[in-house]
Amino acid sequence: GLGDAALVAGTLGEATEAYRRFLTLTPLETRPQLHAAGLDRLGDALLAQGDQSGALAAYDSGIDISGKMAASEPNVIEWQRNITVSLKKKGDVLLEQGAYDAAVAANEEATGIVRSLIAKAPDQIKLQRDLAAFLGVIGEIRLRQGDKDLARQSIDEALDLTKRLRQLSPEDPETNNDLSIYLIKTGDVRVFENDADGASKAYFEALEIRERLVRLDPANTRWQRDLMVNLIKIGNLKAGAGKPAEALASFEHARLIAGALSTQDPANAGIQRDLSVCVNKAGDARRAMGDLP
Fold first, then answer.
1. pLDDT > 70 fraction of the chain, expressed in percent and rounded
2. Using a CB cutoff of 8 Å and minimum separation of 24, what contacts does 214-218 make?
């Protein structure tokens, strides 16, 4: 619709007004599902403008509508899934605000819904992937809070679940990408636990998967960036272990990827920051080797 087109084009004010008109023209009483979806889109537009409070209010309204419909039509799975989509967006905003407990609560609520859906439809692969994703986010937040035990518990479950899914579809790119994500998170937990060997094992397993994915689809910039992040984590680990030459090799590889991405999208500030990080880390490794003052 007009709101989606404006949002993609970056004309955020137009997108917001378009979604508000859509909500007016889509009465809650007669078209609750579309109304709830419109609230989600409005939340996205408000968030893109930096209005986190407005976005949260829109997401909460959508959750409330979907929740009431799910209660009245418990056999309609779509209502339950709509709630989890809105809860994910709400959790992301809360995480950005540093409201870690509230972010965990939103993701745990979504996890509970997904588990109940899996009990009804255990063969739905999408639901299994959704569960792993929510668990991964919960584990990441717990790690930020310094609770390594709860972090490990959530991330281990996400990893085990995704390993089982890969056994069903060993060549599926998205499943393999998911697996690399949870391996990276596993490595992060091991770093927090001062388990350098465990972290290295997880990071290198992820690296093998991500290198294979990039060979499969070299034009996929998301996978390119994931590979770059993986290399930086390995470089950090090597630098911390007093192996600056090995760290430099990883940082230089990451720098080449960041440089290529920067050339493709020079206006992307995030990619420019990535390139700067890689250059600085490579410089630190060279200084540690005595190559720079």
1. 99
2. 216/173, 217/173
